Amino acid sequence: MTVLKNKKYIFFDFDGTLVDSAACILSSYEFVMQTFDMKPKVKIEQGIIGPPLPETMKMLVGDVSEKTLSEMTQCFKERYDAIVEKETLSYSGIEAVLNQLKACHKKLFIATNKRTEPTFSVINELNWNSLFESIQCVDMLPKEQQSKTKLLSNMLHEYEVEPSQAVYIGDRTDDQIAALSNQVDFVAVAWGYGDWSGYDGVCLSQVNALTSLLEDD
User: Fold this and answer.
1) Cβ neighbourhood burial of 34 (10 Å; 0-12, 13-18, 19+)
2) d(CA 165, CA 7)
């Protein structure tokens, strides 16, 4: 596979692609439900990870007042931000892959639905700042524009990237939608939180398979 060989710009999702934050995220949602003595409307499991926080919180709590929803969201932020940098781990082997891509003169980016504060807490803890040209989070956009599709579009424009020269790598269908909506090739990873069974595109099952995308067939 040569998906990355002729691509200069590589955009990554964050949670479920570069780092495993599932335990930290799910325990924080459980903490909120217990604090507010509520039963979640959907099961708190890996499948809910990915969308922006307000969207996921609303899915969990259903029809509550905006005040209650805001208080629950703030409760999540305080709990999660207190533990995220110590309880979020990079996937085994991913840092070596990122360094190899850099050594091949690829320009690396992160486009994530994760909020800015916890994203950079984790990046700083991992000492990854120098690996990426830019790290951008959906909450950097105006509220009415907050989507991964728009985030990726803005980054392509800001860095004058031709879509044909880029690839987006992620673990969920919203990553795929963002890529395809911007005419960018997409690579799915199966070690994250999405379900790619039956998918007929490029899907990698192991981290070290990323480097195979640089090789000639």
Assistant:
1) exposed
2) 5
Global pTM value: 0.89
CA–CA gap between residue 182 and residue 34 (Å, rounded) = 40
At 154-177, the pLDDT tens digits run 999 999 999 999 999 999 999 999
Structural domain spans, the chain: 9-20+89-213, 22-87
The residue ranges of DSSP E strands in the chain, in sequence order, are: 9-12, 19-20, 89-90, 107-112, 134-137, 166-170, 185-189, 203-204
Read out DSSP for 35-66?
HTT---SS--SGGG-SS-HHHHHHHHH-S--H
Among the CATH numbers 1.10.1200.120, 3.40.190.10, 3.40.50.1000, 3.10.20.30, which is that of 9-20+89-213? 3.40.50.1000
